[in-house]
């Protein structure tokens, strides 16, 4: 019921003589059952702002029964009644248009080119909301449900972990594949954690989690078999079963349960009956929760579904995996708060025409975010790569005869050291037609300009192509020296010996700068049988005490010394 003026509302509340006789009246602010709106809106084309009220009324029991509410006057604001108990209901309010950021969920009354909250460009989407729309109690719930121990009050830090064995607290993942996944997770699967896995379509997210589900169900190092529930909102049970059969997972997966549904309430009911050791949701953008506005995949639905699963994980100690879709820019689709709510965010990367996949942690509350897992996609699923350096080196580097334009970079990603091949090609032509794959364009531009200015190479009349083997994205600045060496090799048409590796960052003055974990990089090079390693001069003394098995460490101050050392004899 809409009240058109304040006096009528006051008369109704203070029981004036021309209104019904009330024995009990209760005024509830911010309730959807009653609202008041201003009359002064004739000169304002914008929708009216409303304040929501509720009036719960009861009459005397000895009054006449059966009399209906009757309006008095021209509006709906004045009623007369003698007997009936009633609750005044709200009328349908007018809808209004708002603009919501698809990246972070921030709303605005007008369109902006960039979101005022997250500053994302072109993400404001128009939505229609009811004028009297209210937030349900479900949306006011916290992310986590307090445990019984939390209700007692604050606890000492020294008392929280008493009796907990940190070595057996995590759920271990067995085998070579499990060890690779555990490295990225920080040492195993934490009970009650919420893990979000994102990646491009077809990169292998569902395959990865299906293998993890089968591994946890079989038990392995963690003891006997345990039930695991795999939920899919994109495939039916038969399609998931056929994929599992192709991967050879039919034997020993009796405790892996498949279910196809998109209703969160239905899923949690099945989970409560099964009591699984782990729960996998594929994917969060296909799930919906009853009572929440918006379609599946919308901002509100993704937010509320994730918070519901988070409360389930924290209250039952069941690890929950979520698969998340990504946008065309490579970010997780949905509100930005999604990545804040979860405990772990994993990204799966890989080139379209390459069989290699990289699992990278960008957020981890229980471990390091510097770890990287390397896998290879095969007919039987993802296989862990024990020695990643072998896949990053071409056959040319393993033979005696090598081609010009090839150089070896030594990079560190997390706790692992990789040797990666850099390829470069310089040909006469317009320089604007060159291309770069695997390294940032800005880094490539800086290295080429330094080579022209500080090393004296006339690259301005050449088209330069640079490629990183196996689709690896090189972000470590320790690969600068290898990139410059590969360009020099192609420009001078002088091959680099296949037993030489390069470590170092290049400054704008052409000087070589030291990088972190130098000892670890040099040890990895020596173990693979390389005879020479070019490093910055500043790191040469600290490496002199290492037992490198006969490998020589050559220190250089700048690019000119590198060119003379590597290509001088040629």
UniProtKB/TrEMBL annotation:
Annotated InterPro entries: AAA+_ATPase, DNA_repair_RadA, P-loop_NTPase, RecA_ATP-bd, Ribosomal_Su5_D2-typ_SF, Ribsml_uS5_D2-typ_fold_subgr, Rubredoxin_2
UniProt KW keywords: ATP-binding, DNA damage, DNA repair, DNA-binding, Hydrolase, Metal-binding, Nucleotide-binding, Stress response, Zinc, Zinc-finger
UniProt superkingdom: Eukaryota
One GO process term, biological-process aspect: recombinational repair
Residues of the RecA family profile domain: 153-326
Single GO MF descriptor: damaged DNA binding
Classification via SMART domains: AAA (SM00382)
SUPFAM superfamilies linked to this entry: P-loop containing nucleoside triphosphate hydrolases (SSF52540), Ribosomal protein S5 domain 2-like (SSF54211)
Gene3D superfamilies: 3.30.230.10, P-loop containing nucleotide triphosphate hydrolases
Coiled-coil regions listed in the entry: none
Protein name, entry field: RecA family profile 1 domain-containing protein
Source taxonomy: Eukaryota, Viridiplantae, Streptophyta, Embryophyta, Tracheophyta
């Amino acid at each position: 019921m809409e009240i058109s003026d304040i006096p009528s509302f006051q008369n109704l509340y203070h029981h004036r003589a021309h209104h019904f006789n009330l024995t009990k009246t209760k005024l509830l602010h911010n309730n959807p059952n009653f609202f008041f709106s201003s009359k002064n809106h004739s000169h304002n084309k914008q929708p009216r702002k409303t304040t929501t009220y509720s009036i719960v009324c009861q009459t005397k029991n000895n009054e006449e029964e059966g009399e209906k509410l009757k309006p008095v006057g021209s509006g709906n604001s004045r009623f007369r009644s003698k007997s009936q108990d009633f609750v005044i209901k709200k009328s349908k309010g007018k809808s209004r248009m708002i603009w919501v950021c698809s990246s972070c969920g921030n709303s605005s009354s007008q369109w902006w080119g960039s979101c005022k909250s997250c500053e994302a460009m072109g993400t404001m989407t128009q939505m229609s909301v009811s004028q009297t729309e209210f937030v349900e109690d479900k949306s006011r719930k916290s992310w986590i449900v307090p445990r019984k121990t939390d209700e007692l009050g604050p606890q000492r830090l020294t008392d929280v972990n008493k009796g907990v064995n940190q070595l057996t607290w995590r759920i271990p993942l067995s085998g070579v594949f499990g060890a690779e996944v555990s490295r990225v997770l920080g040492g195993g699967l934490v009970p009650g954690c919420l893990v979000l896995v994102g990646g491009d379509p077809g990169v292998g997210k569902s395959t990865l989690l299906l293998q993890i589900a089968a591994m946890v169900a079989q038990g392995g190092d963690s003891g006997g078999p345990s039930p695991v529930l795999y939920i899919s909102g994109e495939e039916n049970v038969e399609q998931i079963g056929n994929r599992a059969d192709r991967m050879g997972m039919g034997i020993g997966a009796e405790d892996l349960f498949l279910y196809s549904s998109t209703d969160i309430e239905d899923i949690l009911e099945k989970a409560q009956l099964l009591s699984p050791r782990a729960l996998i949701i594929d994917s969060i953008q296909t799930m919906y929760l009853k009572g929440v506005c918006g379609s599946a995949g919308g901002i509100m639905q993704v937010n509320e579904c994730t918070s519901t699963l988070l409360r389930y994980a924290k209250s039952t100690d069941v690890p929950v995996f979520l698969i998340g879709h990504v946008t065309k820019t490579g970010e997780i689709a949905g509100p930005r708060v999604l990545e804040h709510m979860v405990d772990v965010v994993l990204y799966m990367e890989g080139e379209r025409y390459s069989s290699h996949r990289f699992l990278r942690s960008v957020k981890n509350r229980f471990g390091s975010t510097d770890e990287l897992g390397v896998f290879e996609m095969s007919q039987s699923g993802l296989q862990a790569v024990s020695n990643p350096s072998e896949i990053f080196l071409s056959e040319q580097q393993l033979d005696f005869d090598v081609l010009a334009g090839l150089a070896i970079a030594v990079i560190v990603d997390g706790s692992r050291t990789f040797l990666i091949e850099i390829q470069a090609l310089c040909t006469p032509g317009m320089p604007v037609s060159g291309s770069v794959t695997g390294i940032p364009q800005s880094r490539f531009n800086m290295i080429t300009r330094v080579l022209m200015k500080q090393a004296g190479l006339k690259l301005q009349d050449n088209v330069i192509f640079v490629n990183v083997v196996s689709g690896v994205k090189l972000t470590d600045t320790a690969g600068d020296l290898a990139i410059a060496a590969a360009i020099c090799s192609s420009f001078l048409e002088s091959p680099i010996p296949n037993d030489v590796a390069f470590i170092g960052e290049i400054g704008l003055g052409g000087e070589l700068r030291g990088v972190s974990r130098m000892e670890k990089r040099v040890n990895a090079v020596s173990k693979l049988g390389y005879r020479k390693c070019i490093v910055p001069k500043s790191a040469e003394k600290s490496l002199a005490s290492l037992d490198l098995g006969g490998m020589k460490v050559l220190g250089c101050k700048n690019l000119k010394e590198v060119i003379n050392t590597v290509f001088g004899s040629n």
